[in-house]
Amino acid sequence: MARSLVRIASAAICTFAIGATSAFAADAVKLRISTPAVESDWHAKMLTVFKDELAKTAPGEFDVEIHLNASLFKQGTEPAAMQRGNLDMAMISAQDIAKQIPAWSVFTAGYLIRDPEHQKKVFNSDIGKKFYQMVADDMNIEILDVGYLGTRELNLANDKKITTPDDLKGVKLRMPGSDAWLFLGNALGADATPLAFGEVYTGLQTGTIDGQDNPLPTVKAVKFYEVTKQIVLTDHLVDAVFLSMAKNTYDDLSADQQKKVKDAAAVATAYNNKMRIEDEKSLIDFFKKEGLSIYAPDVAAFRTKVQNAYLESEFAKDWPEGIVEQINAVK
Questions:
Q1: Domain at 290, CATH number
Q2: Could you tell me the pTM of the whole model?
Q3: d(Cα 41, Cα 269) in Å, to the nearest integer?
């Protein structure tokens, strides 16, 4: 009899434990994150830091799924997926945002943000708050924090010396397929050619494109150096990536959960920034050892051409009055 009671009690405890675990899992907020990044890239690793930080500060409250290599949504389609309610989180670019909010094209302009520190200060200022609110109001997306994506350089498959923008005439330079990206490629003097990120390696290999532009850590992470001959240090765009959440998902969180999510995003972007900056410093020697030619062109000539192109463009008409001066004034 006693043994029967023990078995019954044990079964009841197990049943309760299973039920409690199921209820616990069911209560966890699922956050599906989509990115085109490959596993070895810092902004892919940043997402793991975000996930681990939430597991530490909010144990059991979130179920974070990270989908790399554009396996869930193609690059550039993530904002629409979040807006439709099909995706919870993504890392989006200023170029993605500018498709829907033209004022954001100011952050796609070459030679505006000076360096990673300037980037962080701009987006942590009232300027950033104003532009983040635009995204919340007009796109129904909550930007959690900004991360340094790297300083973009030209990476070419030919060995033609590039000194001024005129030297890029006729060069098919791969850019993501948005107006803002293509404008930048053309402003540099190249023939901007849209191509999905996942097709760039093969495109360089087959001659579909002559070059691409990305930060140096990305060039290494996806091994573009294997199919290119030179890197031209134009420093034309200090690029950003915005760790973002569908606002419907964000608004469903408690105030405490929202804070934990934003705190985790801050930890993740700080990790990304530190590692990227350190990586960039070491990569020049790496690429030289791989046989690539690396040099700086006449950056002043590129800066003048690119800035004039933007100031004379339709993009500038959508920029808030005085915004360039305000960004320049951030120290």
A1: 3.40.190.170
A2: 0.81
A3: 13
pLDDT tens per residue, range 170-188:
999 999 888 888 999 999 9
Q: Find the distance separating the first CA and the last CA of the chain, reported in whole Å.
A: 79
CA neighbor of 242 nearest in space, from 126, 144, 102, 140: 144
HSE, side-chain direction, 13 A CA sphere, residue 172? 12
326 lies in some domain: no
- Half-sphere exposure of residue 331: CA atoms within 13 angstroms, side-chain side: 1
Give backbone dihedrals phi and psi of 242, rounded to 5 degrees, phi first: -110, 110
The tally of domains found in the chain comes to: 1
Query: In whole angstroms, what is the distance from residue 20 CA to residue 209 CA?
Result: 56
Range of the domain at 238: 29-316
- In the numeric block, the tokens 């939430």 are attached to 54
Provide the residue type at 99 as one letter: K
Indicate the SS3 state at residue 223: coil
